[in-house]
């Protein structure tokens, strides 16, 4: 679970609902598209707030930055049907978001964790809208064995108790009391509220994807061989091995950046350094 470094938006950022051909999506937006626009897609149990620390530095670098809640995630509406949350459906949403942004300049796409699986599915479906692809703390396929076990347990709990999200939240937090004790009251309120607002079927459907997604890197190479790509990660990662991300970058012919002092969420743990790495990649891709 990613935790934002703070909960307040920069003074020049705004929150609104982005209207698309596939419905409305809650977004945070900052900056003007001097050098381009960036669409940021969050991970499992996450939200647009996971990128809040990156808005200001990326805007200052000359980018319009749009961080989005996927369908059924936090403040974006979504149906109570698991079939609405396959990677293919979520990828179609990303393409609709890209179309709705109407970016005049280059449109850069980034996905964190589960969001990485979503955005690569979108690019395999249609790479045309995107100038670059960045994959942050995500792997070539399903999560590692330990995380598969944890995710299976969560999916089973959601299937059995999805109408009692507060009880599932309490059980999750009880498993890691030290982590819960480290959160401020404001952060606790936000994390609980985000969990309760997320549609249970979104967590079930995307949880199944994390458990079972095959390696689709060859598809990505075949469909978008010339698209500039970047793989970013922390120094260590409990969800996908860093070595798997190293290999994924090699297979993609992608740039590779490791953000010092971070694990699974460099976007939240070291947002300034992560933003700097992205801005450098986007600038180099434009030359």
UniProtKB/TrEMBL annotation:
PANTHER family: AB HYDROLASE-1 DOMAIN-CONTAINING PROTEIN, HYDROLASE, ALPHA/BETA FOLD FAMILY PROTEIN. Residues 39-269 form the AB hydrolase-1 domain. InterPro entries: AB_hydrolase (IPR050471), AB_hydrolase_1 (IPR000073), AB_hydrolase_fold (IPR029058). Keywords: Hydrolase. GO terms for molecular function: hydrolase activity. Signal peptide: none annotated. Pfam families: Abhydrolase_1 (PF00561). This is Alpha/beta hydrolase.
